[in-house]
Design brief:
Elements (H helix, E strand, L loop, with lengths): L1 H20 L2 E12 L2 E14 L2 E10 L2 E6 L2 E20 L4 E20 L2 E21 L4 E10 L21 E11 L1
Antiparallel strand pairs: 1-2, 1-9, 2-3, 3-5, 4-5, 5-6, 6-7, 7-8, 8-9
Length: about 190
């Protein structure tokens, strides 16, 4: 009896959720970010909803890499901890399987840095928010599954993440992010 109730509940949830996901898409991929001389990486997930020409999407990224630069015994390491954003999108279908898009929105990112000048080390972190905008394209090779490539510029003032005077500073740098993702479109 318990199994029948669970199956009935799952079927009811599926019947309700299917129309809610219509004209939606989800993607998961890798996003290398360039912040001044530092190149960091993140795993990025997105969920969006299209309404013909217009749409919305949210994204979240978790940092998976860091980068270090320095001179002599002074070394600065920068890491993206996380990033979250919400975007409005404009898209155009070039063909049944190829789409180009532009997006603009608001994002917040958490970075950390560690500057080691032997024998001491200084750690700082910064959370900044700002406008973000970019362009991209997706190719759905079977009409529902495909790949997405996009570029986004984040206007974030990373003021507290600074290197020592012997290395290049990150302050005032805006992250440039290229992203390559697997995308699934819900019909």
């Amino acid at each position: 009896m318990k199994t029948i109730i669970i199956l009935a509940a799952a079927a009811a949830i599926g019947a309700i959720a299917a129309p809610a996901f219509a004209d939606s898409n989800a993607s998961l991929g890798y996003s290398p970010a360039s912040v001044g001389p530092y190149n960091v990486g993140a795993v990025t997930g997105r969920f969006g909803r299209d309404s013909g020409f217009w749409g919305i999407e949210g994204e979240g990224s978790l940092g998976v890499g860091d980068d270090s630069h320095g001179v002599g015994t002074s070394q600065t390491t920068v890491k993206l901890k996380s990033e979250f954003g919400a975007f409005g999108t404009v898209q155009a279908d070039v063909s049944d399987t190829f789409q180009v898009m532009g997006r603009a929105g608001y994002a917040t990112a958490d970075f950390s840095s560690r500057t080691a000048t032997l024998p001491t080390a200084t750690r700082t972190s910064d959370s900044e928010s700002g406008l973000a905008y970019g362009v991209g394209a997706s190719w759905l090779f079977d009409g529902m599954n495909g790949v997405r490539l996009d570029y986004t510029r984040y206007n974030l003032d990373l003021g507290r993440i600074r290197a020592t005077s012997t290395t290049t500073a990150v302050a005032g740098e805006n992250p440039d992010v290229w992203s390559l993702s697997f995308v699934h479109r819900f019909k």
